[in-house]
Amino acid sequence: MRFETLKKLNAARRARQAAIAVTDISDGKIQVILEGEDVSGPLGEEIAKAFRSGKAGTVDVEGRSLFLNVHLPPPRIVVIGAVHISQALARLAPVAGYDLTIIDPRTAFATEERFEGVELIADWPEDVLKDRPLDAYTALAALTHDPKIDDFPLSEALKAGCFYVGALGSRKTHAKRVERLKEMGRTDNEIGRIAAPIGLDIGAASPAEIALATLAQIVQAFRRRELVAAG
């Protein structure tokens, strides 16, 4: 692989930006395509499929055989709230290939004993997200029921274009949340992306079932996500 190709792929990896190395099998030439670059026609359709699936493979496009090597940033889940649902979600997420971080300023909940082996940050989301910003390859799940803790990261997740944004709470609770997020500057279209009540409707009752429904909804959102628009 040429140095310029490696350089572009490494830069994309550092920026948590998706890229595909397109190799023309007939002559070995490689082109790196970043998510958001404008690629039209049949190749553009194949590129979009590959970005969503994350799978490498050979495709035939207009008489050419091309190998698409997909490089996606590792998808991650940021959970707001060290609650029982978070404990179950922390066990399930790695099985599906997701890194997971839990943020909760309430030190009575955010303890090593309750979340052994989990990345746990006992601090306010406002402070944590300054140094660890959300991005398009992040799912955010707000689970505290406390507006003082949940609202800021929800607003930031919508602003950052996180591929999934979910919040625990009833429809009545969410209606009040909507008004607060509007006051924070979020639009109706942005707020409409929030999954609330959180999780796929599987009749979940226990914390473990809610965690399972939430993870399933996150996986669904990731595989069906809108790709970054061409700039």
From TrEMBL:
It comes from the Bacteria. Residues 77-218 form the XdhC Rossmann domain. InterPro entries: MoCofactor_Util/Proc, XdhC_Rossmann_dom. This is XdhC family protein. It comes from Neorhizobium petrolearium. The lineage of its organism: Bacteria, Pseudomonadati, Pseudomonadota, Alphaproteobacteria, Hyphomicrobiales.
